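Reader question, answered in our methods column.
A reader sent in the components of a multi-part assembly and asked whether the whole thing could be modeled at once rather than chain by chain. We filled in our standard form and ran it. Here is what they sent:
COMPLEX SIZE: two components
ENTRIES:
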Amino acid sequence: QVQLMQSGNEVKQPGASVKVSCKASGYTFSSYDISWVRQAPGQGLEWMGWFNAYNGKANYAQKFQGRVTMTTDTSTSTAYLELRNLRSDDTAVYYCARDLPWLSESDYWGQGTLVTVSS
Amino acid sequence: DIQMTQSPSSLSASVGDRITITCRASQGIRNDLAWYQHKPGKAPKRLIYAASSLQSGVPSRFSGSGSGTEFTLTISSLQPEDFATYYCLQHNAYPWTFGQGTKVEIK
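And here is the structure of the entire assembly that came back:
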């Protein structure tokens, strides 16, 4: 069965970087994009972007341009989200997802990784 | 960016009630809209794709409608497990954008 397993919670200082991993299993990893969505405390869902493991193409929300890098390692079926120059308002739960919202295929999500930015 | 205005932001309802949530897009998005259910401590779950198609395994009390700029999610008879926050997502243009969410609480 399809599973996405994310790395553990992180605590970072302002200005630092964080790299969240998302290990996929149960399907051909390079056949699907991986999206990243976050939810800050008390806030709604926010789409951050997606990465195509097949061709290496990424699409980032403008808000995160210059601070975010999404990558994959096809040898380990793992997707990564790196966010740099962290601020307190980056404190959030970060989710990876295999989700094609225009298709009938089921969506699959990681369990979420809490990133806390605090001095 | 396409803005998705979702209403209401919260509602209180009883088991068995019929409820409707609306999402309005700031520009036409055809039927490039999905609806998600999100419970605390869990990952979101897609209920509806292409504005009105029910995801496999999702109970038939959920339905979606709309096209262009106005969309609705209806739960025909609210069940205890339906108390959650619901979001619309437009994927017509980048960046994809979620509505602000509608929290459905028990009356």
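What stands out: DSSP finds no helices and eleven strands in chain A. Residues 36 and 96 of chain A are 5 Å apart (CA to CA).
Send us your own complexes using the same form.
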